[in-house]
Amino acid sequence: MTGLPAISSPVTALPEKVIAALRCELDLTPKPGLVDRNNNGAHHDMDHALFMKSIRAITPWLTVFEQLGYRQAFLPAESQLSLLRPAGLACEEAMFSATGQINTHQGGIFSLGLLCCAAGRLAGRKEPLSTTALCQETSAICQGIVARELATGQVTPSAGARLYQRYSLTGARGEAESGFLTVRRYVLPYWHQESGDRQHHNALLRLMAVNADSNLVSRGGIEGLQYVRHSAQQTLMAPWGVAELEEMDRHFILRRLSPGGSADLLAVAMVLADFLPSPPESAFGKIPW
Ligand SMILES: CC(C)(COP(=O)(O)OP(=O)(O)OC[C@H]1O[C@@H](n2cnc3c(N)ncnc32)[C@H](O)[C@@H]1O)[C@@H](O)C(=O)NCCC(=O)NCCS
Ligand SMILES: Nc1ncnc2c1ncn2[C@@H]1O[C@H](COP(=O)(O)OP(=O)(O)OP(=O)(O)O)[C@@H](O)[C@H]1O
C-alpha cells in the first residue's frame, strides 16, 4: 500500500480521540527529555512544529486503521495484524516523508493505530467500546507478536529486536500484546487523583517510573533506563510541580535521554481514560447539600 486508499467517515470516536491525545501529549509542558512547547528535549533533529506536521500526516490513516478493523471484524483476531500492517507501514512512510525522514511517531502509530483497528472491530461486531474491550481486542490482535518477531530473531534487524536479544526488552510490541498492561496497572487507577495538566504529568511520571522504555536503552544503555526510572520514582515520592519536572528535563537533556515510549503510552492512556467511568462526586470534595 502506498497512497491513501479511499476512506469513508469514521464509525467510532477513536480516530478523533487519538488525534486529540497526540496533540495533548505534544503540548503538555514541561516533559522531561521530550519535545514540548518549551524546548526539543534531548532531540536535535525535531521540534514542536515538526511534530505538528507529523500529526497532520498521520491523521487520515487513523480512519483507515479503524475501517480495516470494521470491515474485517468477523475475521479471527490473529489474522488481523498482517492485514493491518501494509497500512501501518504506509502511514509510517507518510510520516517520514512529512518530517524529512525523522522518526517523530513510529511508536505512536503502532500503539494508537492498533487501538483504532480494535475499535473498528468492536464496532463491526456491535460490541460497546470500553477500556477493557479495547485492550482485550488489541491484545488478541497482537497475540504471539513478541515470540514471532523478537524471540525468533526473524524480524529485520531493528532497534527493538537488538534490545530484545540483549536485554529481553519487548518494547512497543510487548505492551500491545499485553493489552497495555503498564497503562492499565500503573496509570488508569490513579487517573482521577489529579486533573488538568497535573493529571497528565502524574501519568507521565508514573509511566517513566516503571516502563521498560526501549528508547531509553538504545540511547543511554540500561543505566539510562535505570536513571529515568529512579528519577521519576524519587519525584513521585515528594511533593512535585513544574519546577521539579523542569529540573528532570535539564538532567535528561544533559544525558541525551528521551522517554519516547512513555510519551506514546501517555497518549494511549489519554485515549483509554476517556472510557473510564467519571469519578464519584465525593472525589471532588463536593459539599453534600
Ligand atoms: C513495532 C514497530 C514500531 C517496530 O519498532 P522497533 O523494533 O524499533 O520497536 P521498539 O519497541 O524498540 O520501538 C519502537 C517505538 O516504540 C516506542 N516504545 C519503546 N518502548 C516502548 C514501550 N515500553 N511501550 C510502548 N512504546 C514503546 C518508542 O516510541 C519507539 O521509538 C514497528 O515499526 C512496526 O512493526 N511497524 C509496522 C507497522 C505496523 O505493524 N503497524 C500496526 C498498527 S498500525
Ligand atoms: N513528545 C515527544 N518527544 C519525543 N519523542 C516522542 C514524543 N512523543 C512520542 N515520542 C516517541 O519517541 C520516538 C522517537 O524517539 P527517538 O528519537 O529516540 O527514536 P529514533 O529516531 O528511532 O532514535 P535516535 O533519535 O536515537 O536515532 C517516536 O517513535 C515517538 O513515538
UniProtKB/TrEMBL annotation:
Gene3D superfamilies: Triphosphoribosyl-dephospho-CoA protein (1.10.4200.10)
Enzymatic reactions: 3'-dephospho-CoA + ATP = 2'-(5''-triphospho-alpha-D-ribosyl)-3'-dephospho-CoA + adenine
Highest rank taxon of the organism: Bacteria
Keyword field contains Nucleotide-binding: yes
EC id: 2.4.2.52
Keyword Glycosyltransferase: yes
GO molecular function, one term: glycosyltransferase activity
Key words, A-Z: ATP-binding, Glycosyltransferase, Nucleotide-binding, Transferase
Pfam families linked: CitG
Assigned protein family: Belongs to the CitG/MdcB family.
Protein name (record): Probable 2-(5''-triphosphoribosyl)-3'-dephosphocoenzyme-A synthase
